[in-house]
């Protein structure tokens, strides 16, 4: 006698079945309703012709129509600059899942499927064009692809995906893509999210990500972008020592050394030592880190040492300094087009050996050997403006400053201060007491304090100092941040008797380790120094220099 397991009067036997023809049957039924014009709730108007369809069918098949229907009640859509035959063929595809390409209809279908954002049909059109291309039609197809942005779209995608792309920052990549889309917004915005997915969003500067990227109206229209933006934000909020490389997004040092060390160091002015005397000069040199090449450029107008240098929007500036035992008010900027230095408005106060930094398009000079006054310079109007002075009475050559999260942090002797440019006032901070903090630099949300003793860094969001591994140099003359690393120049070797060190030491922020940069020797003493990211034609500079 057969037995079955029964619990509370119900059998436990269960088997799911799927009708493999159901989808086709459903579409066939929906298509018959279209032909009979049953329950059609949308009319497509192309010229004088009217095509009755079901909204739900177009909304499922086309993001273009889905976005249109989601905003308002639509009963009729007028389509302009499209082929009626292409629209009819695509409607047929929506209801049947099949489509036929010919040499006569493929171009119209490509344009219309791109408009409707029916990606599968668009890709099949492109494949069909490639498969039918021959000597008689290749120029026509090429001209057509250029005219409709197919060639350009493909190559801009390849460009921004390139790990060897040489850019000043990932902000530039974002701006380029957005400007390209906005140039022909109606036809190109369909590519925006795909192109954005290839940008290394975690590498975009936090203020730019917060103030520009997250507020861009074109991006806010697409929910797919929320995930990309969230990933980038989480990455940037993670402390540096816990950050991991984002696969496929971040241009890392392992991928290309060229990208990471594609920057130049400007050495401006300084002093030569001759029989115990210091001879101040106005010579300028540029060191190409990738090529390990040092080239002279045009001399500055004034001799100076103990000056400060900064780069803003790709322009290099030299401020103040000392000559003949007196501090200077003069300031200059380098003109890369005419290969010369030009004076800009002088500072109100003469100063030397002073911190310099940039914030929100302005250059700030802070204190120095002559006092605690603070000024800021606007390149747009070539004008200096006084700010609140530092709240301390003792000044030192061991002072430094850096910008983190809209605040300027300044170290003077063994005291820390912060300045909020929006409020215009200084605050005294209770931070680490370190009398030998020669240089302060910043990266993302983090301050790095580097001197001849213990070196430390602090994520200002958690307000806690962490120790860094020991370095070779005892007292670096200068420190700059470039390509996700900190570079130390000049300084004193850890030997007895002390000797000047001409090597360059690099701190890898991600890996928390120091290394001596191979084959790099830069004589650096008492001159302004600044790092500039990106390409710089040293050969042109060298040729120009020989003619002077």
Automatic annotation (TrEMBL):
Functional pathway: Protein modification; protein ubiquitination
Transmembrane intervals: none
InterPro entries membership: BACK (IPR011705), BTB-kelch_protein (IPR017096), BTB/POZ_dom (IPR000210), Kelch-typ_b-propeller (IPR015915), Kelch_1 (IPR006652), SKP1/BTB/POZ_sf (IPR011333)
A Pfam family reported for this protein in Swiss-Prot or TrEMBL: Kelch_1
Domain of life: Eukaryota
Location of the BTB domain: 40-103
Keywords: Actin-binding, Kelch repeat, Repeat, Ubl conjugation pathway
Keyword Electron transport: no
Signal peptide, first to last residue: none
Alphabetical GO biological process terms: protein ubiquitination
GO molecular function, one term: actin binding
PANTHER family, per database record: KELCH PROTEIN, KELCH-LIKE PROTEIN 26 ISOFORM X1
Name listed for the protein in its UniProt record: Kelch-like protein diablo
Organism name: Glossina palpalis gambiensis
